[in-house]
Every structure is written in C-alpha cells, then in structure tokens.
Amino acid sequence: MKKNKFLIVFFMLSQTCFASMQMDEKGMVMNANSDNLPKDCSEISEVVNLTVHAGQKYAAKFNGKMFAFDQQQWNVKPCAKIDITFINDDQIRHQFMIHGLPGYLYPDGMLHLELYGEGELKASLIVPSLKKTYLVHCELAQHAEKGMKAQLKVGGGDGDLPSIPLISSPIKEDAYFFDWSVLKLGGLVMSATFVLIFFGGRKLLNLYLKD
Ligand SMILES: [Cu+2]
Predict the structure, then answer these.
(1) d(CA 33, CA 172)
(2) Which residues have C-beta within 8 Å of that of residue 32, sequence separation ≥ 6?
(3) How far apart are CA 164 and CA 132, in angstroms?
(4) Which CATH number does the domain housing residue 159 bear?
(5) For residue 145, is it within any domain?
(6) Which domain holds residue 125?
(7) What pLDDT score was predicted for residue 177?
C-alpha cells in the first residue's frame, strides 16, 4: 500500500514537471503560462502579440556585437498577457529567456524558449502588476555579451538594465590598458645607454688624441 502511494506521488510529480515543458526536435519551451493570473492581478489588462527575431544579421548595426534580437526593448501594461512568437533566423541555437518572474508561476522565475536552429516557437506568459524591468537574453555562452540582450518593461519598468545595445552602457567598460611604465623604463634605459656611449666615446677619443 505504501509503495502504491509512493508511485502515485512520483507519477503526479513527474507529470507536473513535464506539464510546463514542451520539447521537440526543433526546440523547447519551459514554463509557458497562458491561464494562471499572478496573485496581484484580478484580470488580464491587455493581450500583446510579440514577434521576436533572433539572428546575427540584427547585430550588424551594433558596433562590436555579433548576435542580437531584432528589438532591444518592449513595453507592456501591468498584468498583460504576452503571446510570444520567437523566430530564429540563424543556423545556430538561440534562446529567448525572461528572468525575474514570480517563482510560484514560473519555476526559477524564468520563461525559456529555445530553437536549435532556424525555426519558430510560440509561448505565452502573464506578467505581474509590479512596475519592473525584466532581463531578456540568450544564455548560450557569450551570446548575451555579444549583443543578444534586451529588456521587457512592465508599466514603464524600474529603470534600464546595463549593456542593452543602443539603450544602456555596460557597468564596467572593456578596458585594454597599455602599460606606459614599461615604455618609460625602456626609454630611460635607452637614453642612459646613449649618454654612456656619447660621453664614453668622447672620453675615449680625448684619451686617444692625447697620446
Ligand atoms: Cu543565442
């Protein structure tokens, strides 16, 4: 009897885990939510259709970037339902991830769409009422650093996130220092050598002429 209970609980848990995840050979969606209202929303305020492209060609307008979404910022009303169509125009993997969502609706506070190559995916979410700026990025190694970063503002948001192409500057600029002290020391040694050769040579010449 105990064993049966355990099996039933295990089955239920496995179902809830898989319920929030869709996967096929093209890509996957995790934690989509088109029905459950956040605790602080009494109804859906608006339905927004959001088509987002991901690809290398969208980074061409950003200096030094390699990957990007076609837009870097979206604005929705508090308690909006967003129907996302995510299109990957590249032959490589890209993700559309939103972070900082309430954990009781979105495990790890995250909505995750991913395409392994060219293709299209759809997923919905309902945002809470809080005025907040959510981070949107592709989490593959170096993709966000190379430009695939954006922000979703709810109710105008609560400021800009750092390093959003053409919107905000990074917290810490990339710095490639040239160590001038090396040159100074080298210059000093070189000057000293010239002085030695010059005066030493003169001294030697004087000695030679005296003889
Ligand atoms: Cu990517």
Answers:
(1) 35
(2) 20, 22, 111, 123, 124, 125
(3) 16
(4) 2.60.40.420
(5) yes
(6) 22-195
(7) 66
Query: How far is ligand 1, taken at its centre, from the CA of residue 124, in Å?
Result: 20
**Structurally, how many domains does the chain consist of?**
1
> How much is the pLDDT for 193?
84
Per-residue model confidence (pLDDT) at position 8:
63
| Residues of the chain with confidence (pLDDT) below 50 | 17-18
- Residue 170 CB neighbour total at 10 angstroms: 10
Instruction: Establish if 191 belongs to a structural domain.
Output: yes
Cα(69) to centroid(ligand 1), Å: 9
| Gap from CA of 14 to ligand 1 centroid (Å) | 29
Residues whose CB is less than 8 angstroms from the CB of residue 95 and which lie 6 or more positions away in sequence, other chains included? 112, 113, 114, 115, 137, 138, 139, 140, 143
How far is the centre of ligand 1, averaged over its atoms, from the C-alpha of 2 (Å)? 47
Ligand 1 mean position to 58 CA, how many Å? 12
What pLDDT, on the 0 to 100 scale, is given for residue 178? 64
pLDDT for the residue numbered 161:
95
